[in-house]
Specification:
binds flavin-adenine dinucleotide, globular, binds NADP nicotinamide-adenine-dinucleotide phosphate, FAD/NAD(P)-binding domain, 2 domains, alpha/beta, four-stranded mixed sheet, five-stranded parallel sheet
Length: 427
């Protein structure tokens, strides 16, 4: 590749062109995956440009998670490449500690994302062999300008949780009380004394319900289908770590069986509290459908004691009320939709070969990190932060090799040109 260089500075004024040729890859998203990719590339000597729609790194963690959140896997499974967590961090770092770690990570690798730049579209131009990435930049106030980047490599790191899923439930608009998504829930403090319907029983729904209890609210949690609840630890050892160790020796179906036996020994029969287990085992379900098992950190105790009321699916809402599929009607004050998240890739990436309609790479882990024509995906493995790490390392190695090869070619051409000049000057 002819070396690429920056043509214009981004400090735009009226006369400056609104496009830039980027030297190296563009990374879309400054969450853990984007930061990990940028850091690994730097180690390979490859510069990159990180575009982030928010005004900070790790915006999911900084702006769209609740206060009591901690990592739910032990820290060794959540650290990014090339920088371990500080030794004094607990086994399960808090959200604040994780954010501080990510900030020190960005500083350590000198990663300076371009904030407030939302990628609107990206498409590969066959003729030139470059990606064209269009962004909208929000400047002071709410002024917006459009900008275009041109690059050889495009790394998609916008995350599995880019947009919140807002279900369309009959009558919700007539309900009248407060309705928020879990991404806007911070703490149960403001719900004290209120009857709150929590829709969804994934890790968010369970933990929001627990938090509401701890703040003297009365949560009812909707479980419309089934859910695997596992203890976070078994005999003082992380359940996740145990599963990872067993997977080294045993087939997945057997590990699933053993996990369910251990869960039954620790938690008892969860079905009697309305938490029906899926017929597929927890690890297989995660691998095939991406559905994460719940790692219990106290909600189950509150369900047993009746402080969290488990209810079946919703039929419809009416003013101040919800009707359930079993005909029961509940008076409620507020609704928290813990109904999950989705990828936003199809809304901006104009490509249909590597990414599927659901915004995930079509090829399952560990094959979904590299597409064609310099397209890569980091953080779409359904394996949380450890998946982001493995993607980032693979991507950086791959681009690093291409980068070194092209620089070698470039050097050869430069030396040849130099030699021609020298031999010409001898005449
Ligand atoms: C409540 C919650 C708790 C979690 N806890 C854990 C945990 O304990 N352990 C674990 O392994 N995983 C956990 N996860 C999963 C989580 O997805 C990962 O931890 C991690 O945040 C993934 O990093 P990412 O960079 O891939 O995605 P994100 O963190 O979502 O970062 C993507 C970034 O891309 C930006 N972006 C999106 N679209 C655009 C665009 N068009 N243009 C520019 N920028 C864009 C976003 O603003 C965001 O900053 C949790 C998720 C949630 C919701
Ligand atoms: N560190 C942590 O402790 C922590 C905390 C929170 C979240 N997370 C992670 O963040 C990711 C997202 O978790 P999440 O809990 O927000 O989402 P999720 O796992 O996708 O769960 C969404 C839940 O909402 C339910 N739901 C969706 N639409 C519904 C409707 N119309 N009516 C009733 N129920 C509905 C789903 O039920 P069905 O199953 O029937 O579809 C499911 O129970 C996961 O990877 C999770 O592990 C981690």
């Amino acid at each position: 590749m002819e070396n690429l260089f920056r043509l214009v500075d981004q400090d735009q004024d009226f006369f400056q062109p609104k496009w830039t040729l980027v030297n190296g890859p563009i990374i879309v998203g400054a969450g853990p995956s984007g930061l990990a990719a940028a850091a690994c590339l730097k180690e390979q000597g490859v510069p990159s440009v990180v575009l982030e729609r928010a005004d900070c790194i790790a915006s999911l963690w900084q702006k769209r998670t609740y206060d009591r959140l901690k990592l739910h896997l032990p820290k060794q499974f959540c650290q990014l490449p090339k920088l371990p967590f500080p030794e004094d961090y607990p086994e399960y770092p808090t959200k604040r500690q994780f954010i501080e770690y990510l900030e020190s990570y960005a500083k350590r690798f000198d990663i300076n994302p371009k904030f407030n730049e939302c990628v609107q579209s990206a498409r590969y131009d066959e003729t030139s062999g470059f990606w064209k990435v269009k962004t909208v930049v929000t400047t002071t106030g709410s002024n917006k300008t459009e900008f275009e980047y041109i690059c050889r490599w495009l790394i998609v790191a916008t995350g599995e949780n880019a947009e919140s899923v807002m279900p369309d439930i009959e009558g919700l608009s007539e309900f009248g009380g407060e309705v928020i998504h879990a991404c806007d829930y911070k703490s149960g403090e403001k719900f004290k004394g209120k009857k709150v319907l929590v829709v969804g029983c994934g890790n968010s729904g369970m933990e929001v319900s627990l938090d509401l209890c701890n703040h003297n609210a009365s949560p009812s949690m909707v479980v419309r289908s089934s859910v695997h609840v596992l203890p976070r630890e078994i005999l003082g050892k992380s359940t996740f770590e145990l599963a990872v160790s067993m997977m080294k020796w045993l087939p997945l179906w057997l590990v699933d069986k053993l996990m369910l036996i251990l869960a039954w020994l620790v938690l008892g029969n969860t079905e009697k509290y309305g938490l029906k287990r899926p017929s597929t085992g927890p690890l297989e379900l995660k691998n095939t459908k991406g559905k994460t098992p719940v790692l219990d950190i106290g909600a189950l105790e509150k369900i047993r004691s009746g402080d969290i009321h488990v209810v079946p699916g919703i039929k419809r809402f009416s003013r101040g009320q919800v009707e359930l599929v079993n005909g029961e009607k509940l008076d409620i004050d507020s609704v928290v939709l813990a109904t999950g998240y989705r990828s936003n890739v199809p809304s901006w990436l104009q490509e249909g070969e590597f990414f599927a309609k659901n915004g995930y790479p079509k090829a399952p882990f560990p094959h979904g990190w590299k597409g064609k024509a310099g397209l890569y995906a980091a953080g779409f493995t359904r394996r949380g932060l450890s998946g982001a790490t493995s993607d980032a390392m693979r991507i950086a190695q791959d681009i690093g090799n291409a980068w070194k090869e092209e620089n070698k070619q470039l050097k050869k051409r430069t030396i040849a040109r130099h030699r021609r000049c020298i031999s010409l000057s001898q005449f």
